[in-house]
Every structure is written in structure tokens, then in C-alpha cells.
Amino acid sequence: MAQRTKIAPDAVHHPVFARFYARYSEAVDLRAGIAEHRHELLDGLSGRVIEIGAGNGLNFAHYPAAVSEVVAIEPERTLRQAAVRSALRAEVPVDVVPGAAEALPVKSEAFDAAVASLVLCSVRDLSRALGEIRRVLRPGGELRFFEHGRADGRVLATVQRGLDRTVWPLLFGGCHTARDPLGAIEAAGFEIAGYRHVRVPAKGVASPSSPCVLGVARRPALGPDE
């Protein structure tokens, strides 16, 4: 079970956005193809898993039976309550825990895998959050990530930067559209094992959060002198 610390249960508080997201995400999960990406993201996982920013728990239904436990960290109270309800329906054990990504309330090297799903856009300190994920993974453990980020096209990338400096984080729970999740993961000391770019939704008009990347990174195994 997770080791609790003195982290404030409501380290993140976006009640209006949380209620909107809980309804919106469930409505578009299948229609936009996100459910399919969630399944691919989690396929093949086993052992103990920590999920960072679990939201309302839409990943829980996709965890394979080989997963022995999921510790799901969610700092926002409204989303955490929804995640608890999702955990009760999950086919694997899920423990929903309050906490912030920048100070995970669990022991070091306690997990076989970590999952970051549409969350690195909104953490307050990206490098610190990734450092915490690296800390709690065992050497050789996997980070599965499905994140939206900076667009390749000049026009959309410019729009993203402008929105990030103005209204987007205020409207969407601290979300930033122009971050570079791949670059940040590598800078945190992970080895990228593979990834592919996806667009959400796959067809139709692109939004600032449409460009996504789905992949696997690993915490390097300890060397002989470590």
C-alpha cells in the first residue's frame, strides 16, 4: 500500500474544470479514439504500477490482469472522488491516493512501472515531477506515457505558445499545450524505448491539444558500480 506523507489532499484545486473534465472525458473517450490509446498504453504491464494524475480513473478499466496493484495519485478532490468510483469497478486492485506529482507519497524504487496519461501538461514543475517518477521506479522500470504537447507545424505551435501565456491554463486546470514531453522525459534521465506520434481526434479539426505522443521509457538499470 502507499506510504502517506503530509502532502495536502487538495494540492490542486480546480473544481469547475474538474466537473467539466469528468463529464467531457467520458463522452469523448470512445468517439475521439482515446480509449484505444489507453489500451495500447497499458498493454503488457505487470506487477506494481503507480499512475500519476489519474483524473477520474478512465485508465483503470484497461489495466491487464497481470498488474497486481495500481496506486493512483490524484491531487484534485472532485476528480479523486470520481476515480474512487472507477476503482471500485476495476478488475485489478486500485488504491486512489491524494498527492502531488512533484512529491509522490510513496517509497523509492517501489514500482515496476509508472503511467503518465495526459498529465505532464498540467503539473506545476515538470522536471521535478519526472524526477519523482524516476525515484519511485525500480531500476529498469518502465514509464508508459500518453501526452499531448508541442506541435511540429509552425502555425499551431505559435498558437499553442500564445494560449499558454494567456487563457489556456486558466480555463483548463493548469494545462499547457506547448510543452515537450519527450524532451522532458529524456532530460529527467529516462531512456526512450519507443514512441509514436498520434493525433486526437484522428480526423477533423485540430485543436491546440491534438498533437500527442504515446510511448515507453525506462529508468536505466543500475551499473556494476552503483
TrEMBL record:
<feature type="domain" description="Methyltransferase type 11">
    <location>
        <begin position="51"/>
        <end position="144"/>
    </location>
</feature>
<dbReference type="Pfam" id="PF08241">
    <property type="entry name" value="Methyltransf_11"/>
</dbReference>
<dbReference type="GO" id="GO:0008168">
    <property type="term" value="F:methyltransferase activity"/>
</dbReference>
<dbReference type="InterPro" id="IPR029063">
    <property type="entry name" value="SAM-dependent_MTases_sf"/>
</dbReference>
<dbReference type="InterPro" id="IPR013216">
    <property type="entry name" value="Methyltransf_11"/>
</dbReference>
<keyword id="KW-0489">Methyltransferase</keyword>
<keyword id="KW-0808">Transferase</keyword>
<protein>
    <submittedName>
        <fullName>Class I SAM-dependent methyltransferase</fullName>
        <ecNumber>2.1.1.-</ecNumber>
    </submittedName>
</protein>
<dbReference type="GO" id="GO:0032259">
    <property type="term" value="P:methylation"/>
</dbReference>
<dbReference type="InterPro" id="IPR052356">
    <property type="entry name" value="Thiol_S-MT"/>
</dbReference>
